[in-house]
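Field log, afternoon session.

UNIT: design team B
ACTIVITY: writing a sequence onto a fixed backbone
BACKBONE:
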């Protein structure tokens, strides 16, 4: 009898120890615990420490409070000005309501999938009213803020908090980029042609002005040269006349010698003249 009682007491002790062990659980820092009874949620533990639950009745599920990253695939978005852009985003979230999280998505992978859809819808909704110049300007931070608020409001029923939504890259599709590049190249070539034509027109105007100024300068110089030459010839004639008046015979002889020098220099080697020719007067008579 005593042996049976001892065995029964030992079995009860083991069962009690097992029940006590299964009724204790620990909530660590950075964790939250959801308690369910036969699948029905009955409580949430968010404070760290040793906790107790009904053995074999309560089930404890732990959720991290750490940040979880979302890197959705690149989205092709049509902006408000009908421009197509490829948007690459990066987001972070944390679980703040384990009960709602368990009821709506259950797992982190499912949460990422749902949030990816929410982020994509929010991008299309917000960026659908934004132009490309605004997205590439200082308004970008405000636009990202609107997307973050929209995603956070939509994701709140899932029991998660959206901490960050960031646009890492916003590029035009390759075919659009090529079309824009071709259009820019054509525009620059047109501008270059216009500038060359304008430069050629300016060059012609400058050359015509320079030619006019050159003609005026040459005409003035020639006029001054003629005047100076005329004045010089007049002065020479006056001096010659004065000198001629002082010794008529000598200057008559001098003029004859000058005539010989100039007349015979350019003539043919043979001249046929009569002895009575005026040109031979000094050859026949000699000096006076």
């Amino acid at each position: 009898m005593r042996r049976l009682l001892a065995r029964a007491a030992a079995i009860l002790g083991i069962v009690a120890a097992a029940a006590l062990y299964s009724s204790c659980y620990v909530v660590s820092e950075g964790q939250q615990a959801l308690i369910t009874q036969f699948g029905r949620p009955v409580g949430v533990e968010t404070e760290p420490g040793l906790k107790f639950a009904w053995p074999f009745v309560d089930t404890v599920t732990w959720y991290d409070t750490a940040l979880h990253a979302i890197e959705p695939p690149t989205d092709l978005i049509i902006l408000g000005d009908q421009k197509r852009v490829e948007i690459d985003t990066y987001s972070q979230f944390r679980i703040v309501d384990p009960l709602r999280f368990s009821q709506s998505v259950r797992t982190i992978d499912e949460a990422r999938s749902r949030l990816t859809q929410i982020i994509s819808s929010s991008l299309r909704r917000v960026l659908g009213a934004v132009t490309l110049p605004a997205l590439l300007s200082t308004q970008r931070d405000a636009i990202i803020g609107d997307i973050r608020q929209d995603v956070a409001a939509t994701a709140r029923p899932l029991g998660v908090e959206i901490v960050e939504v960031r646009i890492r890259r916003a590029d035009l599709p390759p075919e659009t980029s090529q079309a824009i590049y071709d259009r820019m190249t054509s525009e620059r070539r047109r501008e270059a042609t216009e500038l060359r034509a304008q430069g050629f027109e300016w060059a012609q105007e400058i050359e015509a002005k320079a030619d006019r100024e050159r003609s005026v300068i040459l005409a003035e110089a020639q006029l001054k040269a003629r005047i100076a030459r005329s004045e010089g010839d007049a002065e020479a004639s006056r001096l010659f006349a004065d000198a001629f008046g002082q010794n008529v015979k000598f200057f008559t002889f001098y003029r004859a010698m000058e005539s010989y020098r100039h007349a015979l220099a350019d003539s043919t080697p043979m001249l046929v003249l009569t002895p009575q020719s005026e040109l031979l007067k000094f050859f026949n008579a000699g000096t006076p």
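LOG NOTE: The chain has four domains: 2-64, 68-172, 185-246, 247-288.
NEXT ACTIVITY: expression trials, pending approval
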